[in-house]
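Q: Sequence in, structure out?
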Amino acid sequence: MDTPRFVAGDWGTSHLRLYLCDAAGTALETIEGPGVAVVRENFGTVLGALLAPWESRHGRLPTVLCGMVGSTIGWTPVPYIDCPALPETIFGSCVPTGDGRVRIVPGLRCRNRLGAPDFIRGEETQVLGATRLDPALARGSHLLCLPGTHTKWVVLREGRVAEFLTAPTGELFSLLREHSVLLRGTDSAGTATAGAAFEAGLQRIRAQPRAQLLHLLFECRGRLLAGTPGAADAGFLSGLLVGADVAGALDLFDDTFAGGAARTVTLVGAAQPGRAYATALAGAAVAVRKLDGAEAARAGLAAVHAHGERASHAA
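A: Exactly. Output:
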C-alpha cells in the first residue's frame, strides 16, 4: 500500500466525503459523513472522530477541505476571490482552521455575463482539478459545464477562471416536480434524465428557439390533460429545463469557442446529470469531453496540498 500523505475532503451542505491520499493524490480509502447543514457547529469534533481510525494507523495528517465548510454556515467563513482568478491565487488564499493542520479552499465570485453577482464554492476545486486531469484546459479558451442542483458554466482562459454563470436547473426541477401542479397526479418521484420523454422535452426547446421557457412549462400539465403517451414521465420537464439551460449558455458563451473549430464543452460532474447534459449538448452539435466530478475534486485538493507543501518547505 502506498504511504498516506494527506486527507482531502469535499464538505458540502448535505454530504461529506473524505479521501485518504498518497503523495500523488490517489485515494487509498474513503469515509463519508454528515453535511454542513447537519453538523452546524461541531466541525472539529466531527472531523476528528471520522479521521481517528486513519490517524491511529498513520499519525496526524494535513487535511484540505473544499465546499460549504468554508461558507457562513460552515466551520469558518473563507472569503471569496474575485475573478479572473489564477490557480496560484486560490492556492494562496486557503484559510487554516482547527489546530492549523486543516486548510479550507476559498470560493470564487464574479460579475457574470448578465451583469449580476455570482458565486461558486466547491466547484472551483473541481475546475482546478480538471486542468490537472486534462492539461489542455490550461491553455486557450474553454467552456466547462458542472451540472447539478446549481449548474455552473465556467469560462477558462489560459488556465485562470475568467467568469462563470449559475443556473439552478436541478433545484427548479425538484421544486416544480414536487410543489407545482405541472406533474400532480403522476408517479414521477424519481429524477428523470433519459428516455423518450426527456428527448421530447429537448426537442421542444430546439423546435421553439424563440420561445421563453416560461411559455413552454405548462405543456407538462397540458400533456397530462390531453392524455399524451408518456406524459406522466418527469423526463419531459427535465428535458425542457436542461435543454433551455444548454441553449441559453451556448448562446451566451459562443465567443469562448475558437473561430472555425468544432464547439466543445467539458463536462465535470457525476454520471447522471452529466448524461443529461451530454445528450442536450450533442443535440446542439457540440462535442463533449467528460471528467468525473469526484476525481476532479480530488485532483484539485491534491494540487492545493502540493502547493502548501512547497510553500512550507520554502519558508
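The chain has a mean pLDDT of 92.
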